[in-house]
Design goal:
Aminopeptidase, seven-stranded mixed sheet, 5 helices, globular
Length: 138
């Protein structure tokens, strides 16, 4: 089941987020994000447990994927694809954008979904790594 996150999901949100970035709790304060009109977080739940989420910033008819994560136990089951498809249909987006580390294995996943690399952003990440800016036109 996919639904918008609530403050009750805070602990599982941070638990998943730390898999993305050890400083996730400092970088993404759920109390603040949930108050923003044009930022949404949708979770994927199994037996009422949050096992994945997508965080988007909405800009009229397109959005940036800020974060997307699936619990390691549930990866390769199409859950990330379902989350992406869900937000596309819900908001009728014409495009989705994201940044991803150049060496991240998720790049293949994004390419398989139709994302194209538009440019490289040098030194984008705090560790000095470059990012690929990718876009999916719908």
């Amino acid at each position: 089941m996919i639904q918008e996150l609530s403050i009750n999901d805070k602990n599982n949100y941070y638990k998943l987020g730390i898999e993305l970035n050890p400083n996730f709790m400092r970088a993404y304060n759920i109390d603040v994000v949930l108050q923003k009109e044009f930022e949404k977080i949708y979770g994927y739940y199994i037996n009422n447990e949050l096992i994945a989420f997508i965080h988007i910033q909405i800009m009229i008819d397109e959005a940036d994927i800020v974060n997307i994560i699936v619990d390691k136990k549930y990866r390769r089951n199409g859950i990330a694809t379902k989350l992406i498809d869900y937000v596309i249909k819900k908001y009728q987006f014409k495009a989705l954008n994201l940044e991803v580390k150049e060496n991240n294995p998720a790049i293949n996943f994004y390419q398989n979904l139709g994302f194209k690399t538009l440019r490289i952003i040098p030194n984008y990440y705090s560790d000095g790594k470059d990012a690929k800016f990718m876009k999916k036109v719908i």
